[in-house]
Amino acid sequence: MSYSPIASCLLNREQGDTQSFTSLDIKKNWSLVNITKKATIPTVHRNSTLLWISGRLNFIITLDNRGHVAIYDIFQDYKPTVLNENFEHVYKCIIIDNDLVTISKSVYDNTILFHKYSLAELQIYKIHRVQILEDIKIPLSCLKDINIRSATVLIEKHNTIEIWSLQDNYLLYSFLKSDELFYSFSSGFLIYWRKSQSNILIGVICFTTQSCKQFNLISNNDIYFCEISKGKLVVCIEGCHLQIIDLNNAHSFCIRKGAPKQYFSMSSSEASVVIFDDGTGMIIDKDIKEFRAINNDYCFSDIFGKPILCSAKHNELIIDCKPYRIPFTPKNIQQIGCNPDTQDIYLTEKGIIHILE
């Protein structure tokens, strides 16, 4: 299926059109289409495993297990370019607006480095990067959390906890660290928790209102995951039902389906996706929506607030709760990604990338 307005818009941008767009007005109605395969292309390093794949404008962007970052240009017959400098190992990639941010380890010592590439410059074949967050001098082990949704990183130093903005390139918050507490940062809230023999104390700090709310949960198991989603505190505790607390009225309820098998945070909206062992999944948004999910080995991506799941063993995609058949039989899906501009979906296997539309 061809989306000529999208291709024209991207081509105009590549040829120097200075129009600004963060996402195009034309959005695919997935419920009205069948999934078809547009192309299959080889990866740069055929024996590597892709850890991450995404897309923006006319680029497919990948990170493999050897730390190599590659971009594939849609308008140049998917010609690949490796962005790494010599001996550089990248551990994480994040797309923020029209920039690519990479997190790597210095070849000279154990400290981590943050670099930003402009996709507009890459479109004119200018591989130029700018180091950001230069004041951070820490080993990789001190990088505790990367929140893609808010484009922030949480860093734990010897005596302090720091939250830095990848988008604005500065320190947002800094406070003294307690060795008794665990920390997370989600949707502008700092979440901390402490375990005792019989319960877990969870605190939620809102920096905007300078307020703090605390909750006691009856369990002494480890917290697997907790985040803020549309004014709700979502808590995954090992071996327990998923618990959701409304921050406005402190109303708490459990989703009695056992411990989640998989949990995914959306990057394009403030929502989450949970997969349970009973053959169902749920989207936790302003409302909670249940859908069929018969597997527990899904790869995940999202586009325009719609979750996309792909079973690593079965040829099925689930887009916004609706199943779609993959038009070929994959052997072993490694990762899934998508491009909000072309609205293509990417499935990766060893040495190849399938491009679906």
What does this structure look like?
With 357 residues, the protein is mainly beta. Helices cover 4% and strands 50% of the residues. It has helices spanning 4-14, 119-123, and strands at residues 37-42, 50-56, 59-64, 69-73, 79-82, 89-96, 99-105, 112-118, 129-132, 143-147, 152-156, 160-165, 170-176, 182-186, 189-195, 200-206, 211-217, 223-229, 232-237, 242-246, 252-255, 262-265, 272-275, 280-284, 288-292, 298-303, 306-311, 316-319, 322-325, 335-338, 345-349, 352-356. The strands form 8 sheets. Strands 1-32-31-30 form a 4-stranded antiparallel β-sheet, with no helix packed on it. The protein has a 4-stranded antiparallel β-sheet with strand order 2-3-4-5, with no helix packed on it. A 4-stranded antiparallel β-sheet has the order 6-7-8-9. Strand 10 and strand 11 form a beta hairpin.
Mean of the pLDDT scores?
87
The rough form would be described as globular
Task: Report the helical percentage.
Answer: under 10%
Tally of separate helices: 2
State Rg.
21 Å
Distance between the termini: 7 Å
> Hey, roughly how much beta strand do the residues contain?
over 45%
Mind summarizing the main beta sheet? 4 strands, antiparallel
Sequence of strands across the biggest β-sheet? 1-32-31-30
Oligomerization status of the protein chains: single chain
Give the structural class. Answer: mainly beta
Which stretches are poorly predicted, pLDDT < 50 over at least 5 residues? none
Number of strands: 32
